[in-house]
Amino acid sequence: MLVKWIRCTVVDRPGFERGQRRWTELLGRPGFQGQGGGWSRVLPDVAHVFAFWENRVFYDSFMADGHDRLAGAQSGTCAEVQVKLFEHRFDVKTGFEPDFTDADVVRVAHSRVREDRADHFALMQQKVWNPAMAGSPGMLRGLFGQAPGPEFLVLSMWRSEAERGKYRPRSAARLAERAETERDVERLDGDAVRIEDAWTVRPDGGGRR
Questions:
Q1: Pfam families under this entry (predicted)?
Q2: Is residue 209 assigned to a domain?
């Protein structure tokens, strides 16, 4: 699975939201598996969108035929747009699906890792972070993705911000020490994203559960 993360600094919020609703036209595109996103809970002018494709071939086909017409509806609404692509490595918890309909909050963590520590970083995600997140009430599902660099993306979906908050303050420092995160990571950034139902595009056409 290919994961596309789009981070937008928005200057015309109503126009951006109108354009975002047009992405329902992705329905029926070969290889499209789902899309969703919302506004940052920290930075009011920042929006995040996450799109999922079966593989790079289907994604490249869409980019060559169809993307620019849809993106044109949001022309002039953003001061900056950052796009990153990640290959799905493994699930956080089990049975990841690109379905935003039962989540209120998505947490995105983006890490640039020292090259000689990349394998260790991925192993610690599996052995240390994943079990802790999977056992936290309110954590629905997530994924771990990788891009050249090496860069990594951890995307986790939560039933509510209150439930996500119970996990992080209590355990993050202890888990980071156990995983030797400071030795692995050169730079870490992230955000908590409040899901906008109107931005969710599901191949099966379903709505919020």
A1: DUF4937
A2: no
